């Protein structure tokens, strides 16, 4: 994939230059970078390499349907009389096997998106404190038109 000619770190890269349309058409366009301040601002907003790695890890967690369902189920418990769900509840909610649910919950704990506590033979999970609930709510609003 051809990258636009203005991508780079030096100031010369911000000078207007023709950019390729892409591999599909193979032609040179008259498109030019004319908003150097906007490019500088956008570059400054890009996440650091560490932040990119953490964001990639976070969105990889969301990319699995079982983990996503577990997170949404745990989100539904927030603010309820019982703000946590046991593994048996989560198995019944997701329809996944107990071993699958336990494995995925382990990954959510490892990613610090869920916390657990043991009460005898039962293990209860809850959504970790932080901005995850708002992120889940926003994502659900984006795909559920009636929730907007």
Summarize the structure in words.
This protein has 148 residues and is mainly alpha-helical. The protein has two domains: 11-46, no CATH class; 51-147, Arc Repressor Mutant, subunit A. The protein has six helices and three strands, in the order αααβααββα. The protein has helices spanning 36-45, 49-62, 65-77, 87-94, 98-110, 132-143, and strands at residues 85-86, 114-119, 122-127. The protein has a three-stranded antiparallel sheet. Helix 3 (65-77) crosses helix 5 (98-110). The longest helix is centred in the middle third of the chain and has 14 residues, at 49-62. The radius of gyration is 22 Å and the shape is elongated.
Explain briefly what this protein structure is.
The protein contains six helices and three strands, in the order αααβααββα. It has 148 residues and is mainly α. It folds into two domains: 11-46, no CATH class; 51-147, Arc Repressor Mutant, subunit A, CATH 1.10.10.10.
